[in-house]
Design a protein that fits this description.
Blueprint: H1 2-19, E1 34-36, E2 47-50, E3 54-62, E4 67-76, E5 104-109, E6 116-124, E7 132-142, E8 147-157
Parallel strand pairs: 2-8
Antiparallel strand pairs: 1-3, 3-6, 4-5, 4-7, 7-8
Length: 158
């Protein structure tokens, strides 16, 4: 009988100790990072660029805890699809089949510990790509994995 009582006491004590918490867990990040226009955002919706020029990317990213990285992607919009994050509607060229569309996709690191980051990237536009409507996609991810997306409609001309 003493053994059973000892076992029951040991079990209850173990459960009580294991279930206690001092609540020292780090705060959980439950907020998405933000893409902020800043002083002079670039590119902006409906902007026209020419082959051989450079697209200056200038936006600010913020997060309540810590930023992770960002991605810039450019793809054609020859089929007039949308991403539902655009600031407005731009006049579109007629729907067409791509021959040599521009595809750009690059990841960029943000310094460790940053809660705000001014992104500055200059992207050269190739000469040998199709003219037309393109989407400039901006994605920023924080350390917790939350992501914010911004789609900007641009046009590439000769």
């Amino acid at each position: 009988m003493k053994r059973i009582l000892y076992f029951a006491y040991a079990t209850l004590t173990s459960i009580a100790i294991c279930s206690c918490s001092n609540n020292d867990d780090p705060a959980k990040d439950l907020e998405k990072p933000q893409i902020v226009d800043g002083d002079i955002p670039s590119p902006i919706n409906c902007e026209v660029y020419h082959k051989g020029e450079t697209i200056p990317f200038r936006y600010t990213f913020t997060d309540n805890m810590e930023l992770g990285n960002f991605n810039l992607e450019i793809h054609n919009n020859f089929d007039h699809h949308s991403h539902s994050t655009s600031a407005g509607d731009c006049p579109l060229d007629p729907i067409k089949t791509p021959v040599n569309p521009w595809i750009y996709n690059q990841d960029f690191a943000i310094p460790t510990g940053a809660t705000s980051y001014e992104a500055k990237v200059d992207i050269p536009i190739p000469y040998d790509i199709d003219n037309g409507d393109y989407h400039f996609m901006v994605r920023v991810t924080d350390k917790a994995g939350w992501q914010q997306l911004k789609a900007i409609s641009i046009k590439i001309a000769d």
